[in-house]
Amino acid sequence: MTTPIAAADSADRWYTFSVFTATYNRRHTLHRVYDSLRRQTFRDFEWLIIDDGSRDRTEELVRCWQAEASFSIRYLWQENQGLNMAFNRAVREAKGELFLQFDSDNACVPEALERFKQHWDAIPDAERPQFSGVEVLCVDQNGRSIGTRFPKDVTDSNYMEIRYRYKVKGEKWGFQRTNILQNFPFPTLRGYIPEGLVWAAIARKFKTRFVNEELLTYWSDESDHSDRLSKLGKPAQNAPGLALWHQSVLNDHIEWFSCLPEHFLRSAAHFSRFSFHLGIGMRRQAASLTNFHAKVLWALMLPLGLAVHRRDLR
Question: What is the count of structural domains for the chain?
């Protein structure tokens, strides 16, 4: 089901930003996004909502907002398929040059889109095709910074280097060019799909501008904690995406091993753990690893992976 955009918007209208929100029974928090967008100082954007099967009358709320908002709100409902499928659909539907994911329970400062655009425009024209987007910092609902800062106030790097060499941790927020995301869709697997699969793939071809500026308020409440525990408590259900992620770490990230060896050891154990959940035996596991170092790590951590798999079954 598709709710038409506001009558004032023409079918061929394009924007600087597509602000994408995936929602599933988040009627009680979605107002944070709406209120944030109403206050934006930069107005050339659309709000694209993909409702992943809500049963809490989210559509009724969004229709009220569509009637009063001074910006385009497009609402698309689908049967529950997971965030990865909602994200892929939003990228296909987007009418903005820049694609900004805005989670359904967060808020941002009124200047967020304006500052993103300024940081993007600050990249020299000749260099901008090498960049996929801009990423900034977040605070929690109490105003405390989340995670670590980037190494410089403006750092031109990529997801891999930021993660491994600089060891930046914690929630961050940013946009990507829509045309790049169209070439890097999320895998269409059931269960939880780590977003790092897409960001790491993009990092192999494009840079990102990382900026030490806090623009998003990331809300963490009891339901978020329960969601995380639910994901951790369903290893078999989430095995397809998690096995693929840890296989990718071993195959495609191995050049960063010396920067964060413990991370690769954990991935080696989890790769075998989740592969066993999928019924993939040791021979096939070894065959799916494409470099010598990955195979050595896998063999070293295989007993632990098997032990954790057996614990999961219990």
Answer: 2
Which structural domain range is residue 280 located in? 233-313
Q: Which helix (H) or strand (E) holds 48?
A: strand 45-51
Contact 248, 200 (CB under 8 A): yes
Using N-to-C axis directions, what is the helix angle for 261-277 and 292-313, rounded to 10°?
50
- Residue 55 is which amino acid? R
3-class secondary structure, 20: strand
Tell me how far apart the alpha carbons of residues 267 and 275 are, in angstroms, rounded to a whole number. Answer: 12
Question: How buried is residue 283: exposed, middle or buried, by Cβ count under 10 Å (0-12/13-18/19+)?
Answer: exposed
State in Å, rounded, how far the first CA of the chain is from the last one: 42
pLDDT tens per residue across span 153-203 = 999 999 999 999 999 999 999 999 999 999 999 999 988 999 999 999 999
> Crossing angle of helices 239-252/261-277, nearest 10°?
140
Euclidean distance between CA atoms 29 and 139, whole angstroms: 17
75 & 182 share domain: yes
Q: Do 162 and 65 share a structural domain?
A: yes
Residues in Cβ contact with 275 at an 8 Å cutoff, skipping those fewer than 6 apart: 239, 243, 284, 285, 305
Residues near 178 by beta carbon (within 8 Å), at least 6 away in sequence: 18, 91, 94, 96, 97, 98, 99
88: domain CATH number is 3.90.550.10
- Of the residues 180, 203, 225, which one is the last residue of a structural domain? 225
Condensed to tens digits (0 to 9), the pLDDT of residues 273-285 reads: 999 999 999 999 9
